Amino acid sequence: MKYTGPKVRLSRQLGIALTPKAARVMEKKAYPPGMHGKMQQFKRKESDYRKQLVEKQRLRAQYNVHERQLQNYFRKAAGKAGNTVDNLVELLETRLDMMVLRAGLARTIYAARQYVSHGHFEVNGKRVNIPSYNMREGDTLAVREKSRNMPCFADALESTAMAPSYLSVSPSEFSARLVTLPKREDVNLMCEISLVIEFYSR
Fold first, then answer.
1. pTM of the model
2. Cα separation of 85 and 74, whole Å?
3. Residues forming beta bridges with residue 134, ordered by sequence position
4. How far is Cα 29 from Cα 13, in angstroms, rounded to an integer?
5. On the chain, which terminus has fewer CB atoms closer than 10 Å, C or N?
6. Residue 10 and residue 16: Cα distance in Å, rounded?
């Protein structure tokens, strides 16, 4: 999915900050957008279905994936051996655009998708321009040599937090290696992924 709408509005609708700008705005406007936004803070108790739907939408927005893509990821996760939550997180987190974001080479998932689509990254020395490309344990991603002088990558590395434990990042080489496959406890997700599993298991 390539979401091109207003990111701050989407963030306020879902109640999670999807970009640094959205985080700043939501400090002052911590309620949904629109003329009745403030009143929605005091609405009636939500149904279980509504809660599951909201969490699913939050997960989709954080990974910037289409509904059909998320459904396919769920089917793959449910069909694999092991915990479905861990499997789903692993499939989503190992997308190339998400790896770029987690490595600190982009400030938002939207920027990461754009950088990958424009061919600025390579995996194991080969150029890859598919955001949904799934990396495997031991794979290395890097900004292509001719793209390393672009200020956006250096700026992102300076402004982002420390990379998660499953990634080994080399800022000087604009690269990152997937040391081990991510699990749910390794990832800071702004949603209850167990409710997403319940939504698709209905």
1. 0.87
2. 9
3. 95
4. 11
5. C
6. 9
Q: In angstroms, how far is the first alpha carbon of the chain from the final one?
A: 24
Cα–Cα distance for residue pair 202/84, rounded to 1 Å: 15
Helix 67-79 and helix 84-93: axis angle, to 10°? 130
155-196 residue pLDDT tens: 998 877 778 999 999 999 999 999 999 999 999 898 999 999
pLDDT band with cut points at 50, 70 and 90 for residue 96: very high
In which residue are the tokens 């321009």 written? 129
Residues 77 and 194: their CA atoms lie apart, in Å, by 13
* Cα 77 from Cα 122, distance rounded (Å): 26
Longest dimension (CA), the chain: 55
State both tokens at 168. 């080994």
3-class secondary structure, 185: helix
pLDDT tens-digit readout, 107-136: 999 999 999 999 999 999 999 999 999 999
Number of residues that this document lists for the chain: 202
Tell me which amino acid residue 57 is.
Q
Kindly tell me the number of DSSP H helices and DSSP E strands found in the chain. Answer: 9, 5
- How many Å apart are CA 65 and CA 196, to the nearest integer? 14
Write down the residue that tokens 């998932």 correspond to: 109
* Residue 75 and residue 201 in contact, taking contact as beta carbons nearer than 8 Å: no
Q: What Rg value do the Cα atoms of the chain yield, rounded?
A: 18
